[in-house]
Amino acid sequence: MNPLPSRLWAALSVIALTSCASIEPAPTPGSTGAPVAPQWHAPVAHNGKLSELTDWWEQFDDPLMLSLILDGQQASATLAQAVANIADAQAARVGSMAVLLPTLDGVMDASRGRSEPGAPVGSFSSAGLQASWELDIFGANRAAAGATRAELEASMAGWHDARVSIAAEIATTYVELRACEAQIAQAELDVRSRRETARLTELMASSGFQSPAEADLAHASAAQGQVTLAEQNAQCEYLIKSLVALSARNETELRKSLAKQTARLPQPAEFRVAKVPAEVLSQRPDIHAAAHDVVAASADSVEAQALRWPRITLSGNIGSTRIPEGGVSTNGTVWTIGPVAVTLPLFDGGTRRANAEAAQVRYEVATVVYAARLRNAIREVENALVSLQSTATRSDDARRAAEGFTRSYRAVESGYRAGNASLFELEDARRSMVAAQIALIELQRERVAGWITLYRAVGGGWSVDQLEEISGA
Q1: Which in 51, 175, 274, 341 has the greatest CB count within 10 A?
Q2: How far apart are CA 170 and CA 81, in angstroms?
Q3: Where in the sequence is the signal peptide annotated (predicted)?
Q4: Do 300 and 314 belong to one domain?
């Protein structure tokens, strides 16, 4: 076989050198391509106490919440889909790597017949191997392999993002339920107090010491307290149903478990967010995924450009042949190398050029998306830190307010029983006390939720090693 003319090889080499583009590396938070502020502007959470993010949920003093999170991750359809996405990406990765290697097929052939009139009947049999290999001179296949690798990395990050999201959702719902139970306990105390006030007012009205209007007001107040209690009970029921759906737990068993620590909000461990944003953002799986989306888009652009240039394929085979005819058998080994096929794109109506331009636009969009996710990540962490700082600032005042309004109510209630205070004064003191108690419970819920939000905002203690374990890489 004749080799390719030297001029053709030279032309192909020049084209390869001038047309091949490199795949862009994954951007890093804080780099020139992904600028991030040098430090956080919001206060560091809770004076910068340290603890490990990886074991975050185990550090809550509530084993039931941890078990619900584990059950929820096992039952989550979102997480199952994320695992399937990893499997698909892994398969695509294997396929793209296989394209870089020669293909090898085994071939067996047999026939029997008369080659021409009067000739004896003969047989023909052969067995051999056929190989084909595309010489990836312009890097199209290498770029495709790079894209699938980046997509696999992004899908693994998507798995962890789903895992963190599910954990945060279950934890938030659980905390809301415990706060709701605490508000029910407060509402039940309020209802009993209102009923007792109504009973005493009715007795005093019957004795002529109070007017019938005041008795009506006391009964109306008791009824209103009952309405509030019923509304709070309904809200807690909604939250229990949500936990059942999220964790796939049996509702009867879940209610029994919940009853063991009614109205007790779990307390999280406290940790410090690193002052350098890049160190924090590197934990976020969505940032990791967005970075590899940029890499995949870059690789797709390189592949689209490379497909505009010639493609060279080399074929060959080797085998053993046996031909028995007329009592004579001929055996031997045959082989060929070639042909070398060169496919030259001549005219496609601009399709390849349009695909290359579209791939370049997708790459540019991916970089914009990555930058936007960085800014959003900073905003989420900053907001979580502000929320924690705010709840810490308000905690002592809210507690003092609740205690003060409770003492005031008790004093007015004693005065009302002694006839030194009116029912209107008593109801006003009661409303202030109840509002202060509910505000304190809500503040406690908001603070725990703030820690959960911060956990979610910094990526849930994610690390590359965890992703490698899941992917089996």
Answers
A1: 175
A2: 18
A3: 1-21
A4: no
Regarding whether 169 and 96 lie in a shared domain, the answer is: yes
Q: Are 467 and 159 in contact (CB under 8 A)?
A: yes
3-class SS of residue 339 = strand
- Residue 360 in domain: no
For residue 121, the enclosing domain spans 103-135+310-344
How far is Cα 473 from Cα 471, in angstroms, rounded to an integer? 5
Half-sphere exposure of 206 (CA within 13 A, CB side): 6
Domain presence at residue 357: no
Which residue has 């199952």 as its token pair?
Answer: 80
Looking at the structure of the chain, the number of domains it has is: 2
What tens digit of pLDDT does each residue of 96-141 get? 888 888 888 888 887 777 666 766 776 777 787 888 888 888 888 8
pTM of the model: 0.79
In this structure, the answer to whether residues 81 and 92 fall within a common structural domain is yes
Burial of 338 from C-beta contacts in 10 A (0-12 / 13-18 / 19+): exposed
3-class DSSP string for 84-99: HHHHHHHHHHHHHHHH
Residues 372 and 227 in one domain: yes
Q: Determine the Cα–Cα distance for residues 89 and 92; give it in Å rounded to an integer.
A: 5
The model's pLDDT over 335-361, given as tens digits with 9 standing for 90+, comes to: 787 678 888 888 888 898 999 999 999
d(CA 352, CA 348) in angstroms, rounded, equals 7
Same domain? 380 vs 277: yes
Do 238 and 184 lie in a common domain? yes
Q: What is the DSSP letter of 34?
A: S
Judge whether 276 lies within some domain. Answer: yes
Cα separation, 13 vs 285, in Å, equals 41
| Cα gap 425→415, rounded to integer Å | 10
Tokens for 406?
Answer: 């409770």
Strand order in the sheet with 103-113: 103-113, 122-135, 311-325, 328-343
In a domain, 420, yes or no: yes
What separation in angstroms does the CA of 357 have from each of 54, 276, 346, 352, 353? 43, 37, 18, 9, 6
- Cβ count near 264 (within 10 Å): 12
